[in-house]
Amino acid sequence: MNKPPSGREEYVRRVLEAYRTTPGTCGHVRRPDRLLTLELYRRGVPLEKIENALMLAAVRRMIRPADAPPLPVVRSLAYFTPVIEEVLEMEVSEEYFLYVRQKLQRMRSS
């Protein structure tokens, strides 16, 4: 896995980049996103947990019936807060999130 961030600035940069590049997001970072990222840093939320939550939420949004209406674009990191909290409480192996990442890769390429 990736090396842990070396400080606050790198943590913020990496979280915001992960959010910005998550499928289904608008790709823009706003001030409230930065403030939430600083709060996550202050709480000591591991970067890996945030990345796992973003991928899990993206896959959940993509696994929908073909005839379901499209979901709106996610415009705020705050949208992912419940999933971040869920991942923090999960007791699953890292292999599960590797599977989620692979699933997302396959879905994006099809």
What key attributes describe this structure?
110 residues; mainly alpha; 61% helix
In short:
The protein has five helices and no strands. By secondary structure, the protein is mainly alpha-helical.
What features would you describe in this structure?
The protein has 110 residues and is mainly α. The chain is built from five helices and no strands. Helix 1 crosses helix 2, helix 1 runs parallel beside helix 3 and helix 3 crosses helix 4. The longest helix has 16 residues. It is globular. The chain starts with 7 loop residues before the first helix and ends with a helix. The mean pLDDT is 91.
How many distinct beta strands? 0
Task: Give the integer mean of the pLDDT values.
Answer: 91
SSE-based structural type: mainly alpha
Order of helices and strands: HHHHH
Beta-strand content bin: under 5%
Q: Specify Rg, calculated over alpha carbons.
A: 14 Å
**What is the 3D shape?**
globular
Number of helices: 5
Unreliable stretches (pLDDT < 50, length at least 5) are none
Main sheet characteristics: none
- How far do the termini sit from each other? 25 Å
Q: Which SSEs are present, and which pair or pack?
A:
Elements: H1 8-20, H2 31-43, H3 47-62, H4 81-89, H5 94-109
Helix pairs in contact: 1-2, 1-3, 3-4, 3-5
